[in-house]
Amino acid sequence: MKDSLMGAAGSVWLGCQTGKEREVIPLPTQAVDPKSDFTAQFRLTGLKPDTAQKLYVKGLRPDGKMTTILVGGFLSVDVNRTEDQPRISFRHHDVHGKVVHEETFSRQPD
C-alpha cells in the first residue's frame, strides 16, 4: 500500500481480518512524523496460507480526526520449476481473493 496515505504528521492504525472472521484484529497505533519519513511498519504474525486477509488502514491527524481509510488485498507468491527452470509468480489479490495482477519471472537458459 505504498504511497497510499498522505505524508503528514499524525498516526497510522492497522486492523486485520482473516478469512471469514468478522472480527477485525487491531494492531497498536503508530506515530508518523518527518523523522520516520511519515512511514510505519506493522508485524503481522499467525497468518495462514491460502486464506484471504483483509487489511484496514486509517490515517489519523494529531487531533485524532481521520484523514484516510483504506481497505487492501494481499500478495501471494508461487515458486516452482518447469523443465528444470526456476519460476516465480507474484499475484496481487483483491479483498475477495480474486487475482487483479500477476507477474511471472523465470531464469533464462545460459
Give the gist of this structure.
The protein is mostly beta strands and 110 residues long. The chain contains no helices and 8 strands. The chain is elongated, with a radius of gyration of 17 Å.
Task: Explain what the structure shows.
The structure is a single chain. With 110 residues, the chain is mostly beta strands. It has 2 domains: 10-72; 75-106, no CATH class. 0% of the residues lie in helices and 50% in strands. It contains no helices and 8 strands. Strands 1, 2, 3, 4 and 5 form a 5-stranded antiparallel sheet that branches. A hairpin with a 2-residue loop joins β6 and β7 (85-93). The protein is elongated, with a radius of gyration of 17 Å. It starts with 9 loop residues before the first strand and ends with a strand. The mean pLDDT is 80.
What features would you highlight for this structure?
2 domains; mainly beta; 110 residues; 0% helix; 5-stranded antiparallel beta sheet; 8 strands
